[in-house]
Write a structure and sequence with these properties.
The protein contains seven helices and six strands; from the N terminus they run βαβαβααβαβααβ. It has 210 residues and is an alpha/beta fold. It has a six-stranded parallel beta sheet with strand order 2-1-3-4-5-6, sandwiched between helices. Helix 5 links the parallel strand 4 and strand 5. The longest helix has 27 residues. The protein starts with a strand and ends with a strand. The mean pLDDT is 95.
Length: 210
């Protein structure tokens, strides 16, 4: 039997937001064939560094890892959306500092995951759904910093990538401004199932799933 483990944050650990509806892990287990099982180790609120602790809890029969992390790291830098800067160059320098710091943490996490010798997939950070159009526009622009790191590191590691920006692209995919709804979870699990059933992990080649 194959055993896929979901690691990371509330993109996978969304039970608190679906009001009694099926969460991602239950939707995934329901879609997988009998030769698969799924376990949730992702924890709502986790940042990239927390994935290291989750990796320490892997069951002995784990066969595949799917990681969604980085969204809370971005939230923890939400001050960059409103910070004043003395010129465009200063603003870009601050963004570069945030990017460099995040890349170090993400690279360390992904290296730890891939060093286990198991197939690994990662996901981008999807866009929020802020009702304020200006805040939404700024947030999408700021997230490009974090997603650029994730995409680049996925390609460098040769791991497949779930692009949540294109998967969760409708208002009904969200339970609130930043959490996946039942519908969003269904779309996410559809893509995970497609990933597990079609991707050749032996090739160590990045393929984007949407």
């Amino acid at each position: 039997m194959k055993h896929v483990i979901l690691l990371g944050d509330s993109i996978f650990d969304n039970a608190a937001y679906v009001r009694g509806g099926p969460d991602v892990i239950n939707q995934l287990q329901g879609q997988l064939s009998d030769e698969w099982r799924a376990t949730l180790l992702a924890v709502d609120g986790s940042v990239v560094e927390d994935v290291h602790r989750q990796l320490q809890r892997l069951p002995a029969d784990a066969s595949h890892l799917v990681i969604s992390a980085g969204g809370n790291d971005a939230i923890n830098h939400a001050d960059i959306l409103t910070a004043r800067a003395n010129g465009f160059a200063e603003a870009l320098n601050r963004l570069a500092d945030v990017s460099d710091s995040f890349e170090r943490r993400y690279e360390e996490m992904l290296r730890a995951a891939t060093s286990l010798g198991l197939p690994v997939a990662v996901s981008t950070i999807y866009y929020p759904r802020f009702p304020d159009a200006q805040l939404q526009r700024i947030a999408v622009a700021a997230l490009s910093i974090f997603n650029d790191v994730i995409i680049r590191r996925a390609f460098m590691a040769g791991v497949p990538l779930l692009d949540l920006r294109l998967i969760c692209n409708q208002a009904e995919d969200y339970a609130n401004e930043i959490e996946p709804s039942v519908r969003g979870g269904e779309k996410i699990t559809d893509v995970i199932v497609a990933l597990l059933s079609t991707h050749d992990f032996n090739r160590r080649r990045t393929e984007v799933f949407i």
